[in-house]
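Sample intake sheet
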Amino acid sequence: MGIFSHIIFDLDGTLTDNTQGIKNSLKYALQQMHVDGYDENILERFIGPPLQWGFQTHFGLSERDTKLAVEYFREFYGENGWHQNDPYDGIMELLAELDAQGKKMYVATAKLEKFANKIIRHFEMDRYIIQLKGADYHAKKATKDVIIEEVLSMQQLVPSKEIIVVGDTVYDIDGGRKNAISTLAVGYGFGNEEELRAANPDYFAEDVDELYEILTA
């Protein structure tokens, strides 16, 4: 089992379960865009990738309408959705143990950075997280590989297998691989397990207990 000195976590689906907040924000945005008659299960596919990709891919919105839908999403999320959220059972204990072991921890998320910062402060994860990087307001830096690269660059970290990214989607695994660091997929989040395993992460954790075993080894 690898020994990791630096750990880059995804946020939604990895540290916290923000299902309800994201779904409610999406419902509000789609209502404002007069989009109806959709299967609500499709909303789960928005969790992980950039919002812009979700609106364009799943609802075929134009670039202009996508920008408007994202604004409506952020309007609701900024007021209500961000705190309709909970850390997964065992996550706070894991962060505390990793901190006690001297591990350096970061967050790389496709969520808008200002919302992600509110979440980690709300749950007091900021006592453990050295740096959080998220998407900028115009989503010019929303892809996971770019966000991870920014964390590495700003922390002056040379890519190595002692640095690991932990996430619940293929975007996290691909982002880690493109930056030449170790990758760990979690099976308890929002990603499709078959797709995650097909992405060939270096490690796979079915639940937080397995994640604990891998990261604290």
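Comment: The radius of gyration is 17 Å. The chain has a mean pLDDT of 93.
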